[in-house]
Amino acid sequence: MATDLKQRAMDAFVDDHLELAVDLYSQAIAISPTNAELFADRAQANIKLKNLPEAVSDANKAIELDPSMSKAYLRKATACMKLEEYQTAKAALETGASLAPGDSRFADLIRECDQRIAEETGDMQNEVSEEPPIEVVSQKDVQPETSVLSEVAVAAAPKPKYRHEFYQKPEEGVVTIFAKRVPAENVTIDFGEQILSVTIDVPGEEAYQFQPRLFGKIIPDKCKYEVLSTKVEIHLAKAEPIQWTSLEFSGQSAVPVRVISSATGSQRPTYPSSKPTKDWDKLEAEVKKEEKEEKLDGDAALNKFFREIYADADEDTRRAMKKSFVESNGTVLSTNWKEVGSKKVEGSPPDGMEMKKWEL
Hints:
By secondary structure, this protein is α+β, with helices and mostly antiparallel strands. Helices cover 43% and strands 11% of the residues. It contains eleven helices and nine strands.
């Protein structure tokens, strides 16, 4: 049955009935889920349909089932190159070339990847050296991209089986998929340069697939995930410390804001601004220094002196100061608790003056 479906799928592919081909391959896979050939062939049909994340997922599954299948690496590389993930594509091509040394397609595509990677590296170096101000720009002010990605149609999808959430920090994004009691062995997660592929395949249930094209690039080797009792938590290591406006890439996304964080983590982050930035910590320190060195006269100087004593005093000294000041109606200020703690402090007016008791 699976063989017949595969042949019909191949015929549909040749006749350019690509959606039918994908459907027939999917039916064949349902019957024979460990057949690596079926996944590799469906990957090719998905590439033609420009379903690029799905093509990468199919190629990864084919490689998992048969690591010696050179064409699976070729399909993965082709999809990744269209997604502009040249480092991931090159790694797949190098493995495929070692399995099929006589196939010149691998060498040709590796050279193309090297060229694209060099161009990207050059562009990044230019951006770093120039350090232009970065602002949030409305999409209407940005010219539409002409790459293959901008031509990929986004089809309406049914409500997913599991709910997911996304939050981020400057250095990483965290994706949480709320899936209860899913065995870790039934979760497969792959990371590309700008793609996340999640598959949760529990026997007896329809497989869940989540394959977003990410807003920004990530570092696959530094990404990690954990399968917990109530969720799957995925940590995406960002290639650049920028604020993503969303998890998924979209032609409507605004230009990201770069967040420059301190290497030691002890300083506050700074953000692009048209106005000169102020070091508020420095200003606060200067104000405190000026207050301490301020020259005062008369009662102001005396009050300042008493405030400084109180601020630096221990608990007994503070109690003595409060008690003596209150009980003496502001005429005595003692710092000796042993002296004033056991008796009432009588008022002591200055020479030439007398105390009067006010009656209400």
